[in-house]
Amino acid sequence: MFAPIFALLNNDAGVAALLGAGDDMRLYPIEADQGTPLPYAVINQIGGPTENQLSGAATTDRYLIQIDCYAKRLTEARNVAAAIRAAVEVHADVTDIGRESRDPKTRHFGYQFDIEWLIAN
C-alpha cells in the first residue's frame, strides 16, 4: 500500500550523487531532523484515492506524493529536484512543479513538486 519511491531513489546513481546512498542517503519520510546536512529531500504521501471498479475491488492504487528538496542555494535544491524527477518520471507522472521557497529561520532554499504514481494491485 505504498509506492516504492524510496527503493527507486536509493538505487538511482543521479540521486545518490547528490543525496548519498544506502543508510546514509539524505532522503526522509515526512520530515528531516533538525540539523540534517544539506542537501536533502523529504517525501510525503499527500493522498491516494483508489481506482474503484463497479465490478469488484480496486485494481489500481493512486499515490499522490509531495517531494521537498532543501539546500543551501536555490540552484542546488533545483538540481536535487531534477535528479529525483529524472528517476521517478519513467514510473510516475509529475503533476505540479516549481514551488520555490526559503525558510525564514534556517535560510535554506526549498524546491517542491508533486507526483502521481499508479500501482496495480
Task: Walk me through the structure.
The chain has helices spanning 5-10, 13-19, 74-88; strands spanning 27-29, 40-47, 50-53, 56-71, 93-102, 109-120. By secondary structure, the chain is of the alpha+beta class. It has a single domain, classed as STM4215-like (2-Layer Sandwich), CATH 3.30.2000.30. Strands 1, 2, 3, 4, 5 and 6 form a six-stranded mixed beta sheet that branches. Helix 2 (13-19) runs antiparallel to helix 3 (74-88). The protein starts with a helix and ends with a strand.
Features:
six-stranded mixed β-sheet, 3 helices, 121 residues, single chain
CATH architecture, by name, is: 2-Layer Sandwich
Q: Could you report the average pLDDT, rounded to the nearest whole number?
A: 91
Number of helices: 3
Instruction: Please name the CATH topology.
Output: STM4215-like
What string, H for helix and E for strand, traces the elements in order?
HHEEEEHEE
Task: Offer a concise description of the structure.
The protein is of the alpha+beta class. The protein has helices at 5-10, 13-19, 74-88; strands spanning 27-29, 40-47, 50-53, 56-71, 93-102, 109-120.
What does the secondary structure layout of this molecule look like, with pairings?
Layout: H1 5-10, H2 13-19, E1 27-29, E2 40-47, E3 50-53, E4 56-71, H3 74-88, E5 93-102, E6 109-120
Parallel strand pairs: 1-2
Antiparallel strand pairs: 2-4, 3-4, 4-6, 5-6
